[in-house]
């Protein structure tokens, strides 16, 4: 019976990973296809990567997407961290329930509603849609994800470290930046990376809030896919997959190095004691 359950678990795991990653593997393989037909393999070639680099529309959209993602992720990280600190440290203040609901509402709200609401807001205040409106929209929906990640770390944070800094004469702001922030920094970085990835991936909200000269890469890809998938689109998607993969691996290596250094410090303290 144990062997049967073991084979069943292995088969389920293999089928699950195949379902998730086989389409991505096929996309990467066919991005190196010589043929223009994405379903017909005609040999290995990098011609579509060269064509991608020469496509002015795709490159402009990629540049807009990168700027929006970096700026929105940075601002969302600052605001999300502040919101997480307020919700964790100040558990009793008037309007806390309303504030918490407003912070986390985008997590459960459909993107269509968020995009339409922001569109109506920009139209009502006569704010021209463009780069700024897309950035504001991405800050709005990604800030809550940062708040969730940082709040989960602050809940387990040892407040005695901060209190010791305050007893030694540090101001609350100085104690936060010199004691609290270095400890929760991995969660802040994780929140930034999550917000950056969500901004790169967003299509629905950007479609509602973008304007002339602010076409993002997902919007550009979607508009071209409706006319038919080309290996050039496969090349663009492969580059995006590579960027995200490198970011995830780099973050994992940094966290592993920090963990190794922390263990060495703990061992040194134990040895000195």
Automatic annotation (TrEMBL):
The keyword Cytoplasm does not apply. The keyword Cell membrane applies. Its main location: membrane. It comes from the Bacteria. Pfam families: BPD_transp_1. Keywords: Cell membrane, Membrane, Transmembrane, Transmembrane helix, Transport. The chain crosses the membrane at residues 12-32, 61-85, 97-125, 131-154, 175-195, 233-254. PROSITE patterns: ABC_TM1 (PS50928). InterPro entries: Bact_Polyamine_Transport, MetI-like, MetI-like_sf. Residues 62-254 form the ABC transmembrane type-1 domain. Coiled coil: none annotated. Belongs to the binding-protein-dependent transport system permease family. CysTW subfamily. This is ABC transporter permease.
């Amino acid at each position: 019976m144990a062997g049967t359950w073991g084979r069943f678990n292995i088969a389920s795991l293999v089928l699950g990973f195949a379902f998730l990653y086989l389409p991505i593997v096929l996309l990467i393989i066919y991005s190196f296809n010589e043929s223009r037909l994405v379903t017909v393999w005609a040999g290995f070639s990098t011609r579509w990567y060269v064509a991608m680099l020469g496509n002015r529309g795709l490159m402009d959209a990629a540049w807009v997407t990168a700027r929006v993602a970096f700026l929105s992720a940075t601002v969302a990280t600052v605001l999300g961290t502040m919101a997480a600190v307020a919700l964790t440290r100040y558990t009793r203040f008037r309007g806390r329930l309303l504030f918490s609901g407003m912070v986390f509402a985008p997590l459960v709200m459909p993107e269509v509603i968020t995009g339409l609401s922001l569109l109506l807001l920009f139209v009502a205040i006569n704010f021209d849609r463009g780069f700024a409106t897309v950035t504001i929209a991405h800050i709005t929906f990604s800030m809550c994800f940062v708040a969730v990640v940082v709040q989960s770390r602050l809940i387990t944070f040892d407040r005695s470290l901060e209190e010791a800094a305050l007893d030694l004469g540090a101001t609350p702001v100085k104690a936060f930046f010199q004691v609290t922030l270095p400890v929760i920094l991995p969660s802040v970085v994780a929140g930034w990376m999550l917000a950056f990835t969500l901004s790169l991936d967003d299509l629905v909200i950007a479609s509602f809030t973008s304007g002339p000269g602010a076409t993002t890469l997902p919007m550009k890809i979607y508009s071209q896919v409706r006319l038919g998938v080309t290996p050039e689109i496969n090349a663009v998607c492969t580059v995006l997959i590579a960027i995200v993969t490198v970011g995830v691996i780099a973050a994992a290596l940094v966290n592993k190095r920090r963990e190794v250094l922390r263990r060495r410090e703990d061992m040194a303290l134990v040895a000195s004691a």
